[in-house]
Amino acid sequence: MLRRVVAVVAVVVCAAGVVAYQATRPARAPATPRVFVPSPRFFLDFSPSFRTSIADAYYLNMVQYYGEHARGDGRFDSLPQMVDLVTRLSPHFARANIFGAFALIDAGRPDLSARVLRRAFSENPGDYRYPSYLGFFAYRYGKGKTKDVVAAHWYQKAASIPGSPSYLTRLAAVLMGKGGETQKAILMWGQVYSAGDKYARQKAVVGLERILPKEKQARMKAVAPLYGTMPKADFEALIAELFQGYGQ
Amino acid sequence: MKQLVAITINTFKETIRDRVLAVIVVFALLMIAGGLWLGSISLGEQGRMIKDFGLVAVTGFGLIVAVFVAANLVHKEVEKRTVYVLFSKPVSRAAFITGKFIGLCGTMAVVLAGMGLFLFALVWIVAGQASGMVLLAVLMIYVQLLAVVAVTIFFSTMGSAILAAVLGICVFVAGQLSHNVLALTRLGKNPITEALSWVVYVIIPNLSAVDVKAGAVGEQTLAWGQIGLWVAYLLAYIVVALALATVIFRRKEF
Amino acid sequence: MITVVGLHKLVAVGLRRRRVEILKGVDLRVDRNDVFGLLGPNGAGKTTTVKVALGLMRPSSGSVELGVDGLSQVGYMPENPYFYDYLSGREFLGFCARLFGFEAAARHDRVEQLLRDVGLAEAAGTHLRKYSKGMLQRIGIAQALVNDPELVLLDEPMTGLDPVGRVEVKRIIERLHERGKTVMFNSHILSDVHELCSRIAIMRTGRVVWQGTVHEALAEAATLEEFFMQVVTS
Asked: Would an 8 Å CB–CB cutoff place A48 in contact with chain B?
């Protein structure tokens, strides 16, 4: 009987020790900014049957890694490799591509972010989000005088994809004008006017007002190329709005 | 034919009632449901996570059931000497092997259908809709596992159950890497190495050719004609494996 | 009915595949309607002889003729039978009946009759893994009789049975004999052999060293045990 009691007490003490130890340990081990990430080549040679599963596992890992370091030391040393691995293994995984691109911005690597989005767009040419984000990144993080025009081209490309929202053309037109490509901007605003609703037309008129010359002759010369690029009725309506108050 | 039907029904009853199978299936369902937790940390990709990890769980647990049950099917009969009862009756060795295989096919169908429908329902609940691709992916996993079952039965006629199970798992893994072996045949400059690589490539069943898991999560464009041909290839492979198993089993004495 | 002539059997044993001769020229004759006892010490080759006769093993040389039209006319019960854990007694006998091509209605009737004959009607729905040794022995006899065979081979049919079970099995064997069937069984319980058998053979180290009627044996010794000891130790 005594032996049984001793045995039970020993087991209970051990169990209590295990629980107490686990409960008092820190909630999470300190996150290291640099972790081992295998090369995509290794997994691309692996079975195609499990590529997406491996990509998903590393995607979850990537999200947790980003979250820990965004709240912590702000270092994302291994983030580029993680994003590269996940997006190469699963190139149609939209959320991973987009999340990775934005996370790389936070990691101070807009160049890698653009590379990820370009690769994603080449794999998913029907998804307007990639060129629209490329346009945003070019405008926000690009350098040099041509950054607005580069952004405008990306927005224009995004706008040409079926199913894309109408504001993309307007963004392209604004940036084209801002970048100094006035003629192209005028043509784009013409497209917005003829393809859009009342709201879009208002926006087109405002946009054109911003870039057209104030002098009547110069203004007429600037809008002349619009003739033939849009239906006659739309052209006449637009001219009427643009030359309102200019007299005969 | 009647003996084949009798052994098939008997094998199905024996295997489907095994308690270990029930435990494995319960664990599999828990693992599939575990995808819900993974989905909660995926930034809105619950549907994809549940589908992907659920299909991996179906594959993994399906593989465990396939190899461990298949490895024991023949071996247990010999160990427990129920073969004395069977082969003292007018039962051919071919009917025995084939009946065992078809019986286990039935059991695997029930197990995988259960797991597949559970996964489908889970995806439906979480994502609000579920495409039939999940069920098709489970069907293709089933076809792959049938090939593994046939090969494991073949190995079990030659050696111990453990060895047959291990070799069955090895064949499954090798079957996922079949395309790598094919690449090896093109790399070597030595004709002997090239020939050996070809032999290995032909012997290993190309399982990844019928895998559509990536298609279930939108990562694969599926050429159903090609997949259909590969399914026919695997069925022919199964026939050859069972025929070889029968030839070896015929030579066995009890 | 059973004619065994010059039966030899070699097996390869161990890692080095050493050849061991288990049967060294067995000659045996079992006549139609005999109740025949095959006796011998452990390792004499009794079970091996039966296995070769059934085709479970191939002879190295010699011949075996069962004198029936294939295995559909034979019933066999192995020693210490083990059956399928998750089948009930009824399902197992139904499976055996299917192997002989019984159709559904005939199968049902035959199975129920056999269950009554071996005293397992009440346990028919229980899984075989819950059967006692004696119950397994009874179901083993039942499966050997499913096809109403002309030739019945039983290996230690009385092992593990209580006195009631032993009496029932003896009655089964007697009924088979009355119906013109041929029965051959191995047994170490010589009193049962004495009671049931018309002819016996004694094997030792892979050979039949004596063969004849029980009366002939008892002419040379007071009891069958004494005769047996005489033969195997001489």
From this structure: yes
